[in-house]
Amino acid sequence: MSERPDRIPEWCRGEEWCSVTATASLLGRKWKPVIVDRLLKNGACGFSELEGLINGISGKALSNNLKELEEDEIVNRSVISERPYRVEYALTDRGRDLEPLIVAMREWGSAHFGPDSKKDNP
To answer: If you count DSSP H runs as helices and E runs as strands, how many of each does the chain have, helices first?
Structure first.
């Protein structure tokens, strides 16, 4: 794992370790759960394919988030060919273990923000 200050060891200092804080620090950025969701739904993807599956993400944001997910052993990056240079991203076992959490996020989002939800928020 990288040595950035927002990583799990920094967030979980103190006498009591918090599993929610650890998970939130891993997936807490806007695009990370979306990337994991798309890889769960579609399997291994090339960069451009993955970018096309995520509405609104910039290439730079996708690249940065994939790099962090790779550092955290959630995503594996494999070079498929040198000419033309092509890489593929796939979830690791650790990444696939996030499926129940991602499914719960999908269901909660549909229930509270979907077209059939009974939301009172603007």
So the answer is: 7, 3
Torsion of CA 18, 71, 92, 103, to 10 degrees: 50
User: Do you find a cis peptide bond into 84, omega within 30 degrees of 0?
Assistant: yes
Q: Domain limits of the chain?
A: 29-111
d(CA 17, CA 15): 7
Q: What is the CATH number of domain 29-111?
A: 1.10.10.10
Give the pLDDT of residue 2: 46
Q: Mind listing the pLDDT tens digit for each residue in 31-88?
A: 999 999 999 999 999 999 999 999 999 999 999 999 999 999 999 999 999 999 999 9
| CA R_g for the chain | 16
Say which amino acid occupies 62: L
Q: What is the DSSP letter of 65?
A: H
Mean pLDDT of 8-34: 76
Structure tokens of 59? 């290439």
Are 69 and 35 in contact by the 8 Å Cβ rule? The answer is yes
pLDDT of 24 > 80? The answer is yes
